[in-house]
Amino acid sequence: MLQLLLFIDDRPTTQDVIRDAEQILQKNLTCKLALQVINVSSQPYLAEHFKVVMTPALIKVNPLPRQVIAGKYLISQLIDSWKDWQTQVIESENSNSSSLLKGQLANPTDIPYASELIRVADEVFRLSQDKALLEEQIRFKDRMITILAHDLRSPITAISLALETIELHGYQLTSAQALQLFKHARSQTKALNAMITDILESAQGSTSELKIYLEKIQISDICQNVINDYSLVTRLEAKQQTLISDIPIDLPLVYADAERIRQVLSNLIGNAIKYTPQGGEISVAVLHRTIQKIEVTVTDNGVGIPKELCDRIFEDRFRVSENDDQEGYGIGLAVCRRIIRAHYGQIWVDAAGKQGSCFHFTLPVY
Fold first, then answer.
1. Which fold has domain 2-102?
2. Whole-prediction pTM
3. Tell me: the pLDDT tens digits for 84-100?
């Protein structure tokens, strides 16, 4: 039996190709014929399976060897091949060669069966990918619940203690002491807000739109504001760490979202504090790199990042070690990358093993 597959598309000339092909196939027919017309729009998996790269295409699947003719000269090629194909069928039947190579179709009913089999296989593959994604989301949710129970408790406790101290001992406190407690409560509230912002933005996924509000800003003011934040200063003092800044006063204006850049800086400096040991040193520097951009650098002498992971740490939900005892969601750097990319800048890290890390990001000059 001669088995043929005719792959077509939705062009107006398609019906002419089908009609002309059928006329040639019926002319002087000396063998059994099975022709199936396949529209690549409705059955793309079959086109992929048979490696069809253009339409119209006619594939002889039986008898072997498989042969393909395609393109605008398909009909003339079919005329040239027609007698040879019929001869191949007769020779195949005479030699009692009824078997086909693995993956070939044995009779006309095998073609729709193969079509359905391929479709099901594609669907199974898609479902397996969806299953893997859902499992990852469940693992992330479980980890988030565990971490939130720890991380959110700390600032909430600090806020509560500050307010209780003012409530119970307010009459004994000096104005400076009361102001200090209020600053502490406010900084912890900002820390809570930053955590929640990171979590919500991560939950939206890396493909969701990130809203930014661009304006002319002075990057040195943003840096000083973050460096002098009471919450960061308190964390530095608790670990007896030193923060050194090198921020020129004559920097050009940049075109950026001030709150988003503050979020990036707070995240990078916060990570530096977290992963730098007691008594360590952290530095923040800004450089007018070119007339088109400025570069901000946050350096520490902490535990460092393995060189092979320098690109991966900016991926969603990636952590250098799943079993380390540091707090964190593994989402902060991914959010930083989304923010900087939304500003048409770049963010990267230079690592030196266990000698610390050096994070950089660029912003366009206004």
1. Glutaredoxin (3.40.30)
2. 0.52
3. 888 888 777 776 544 44
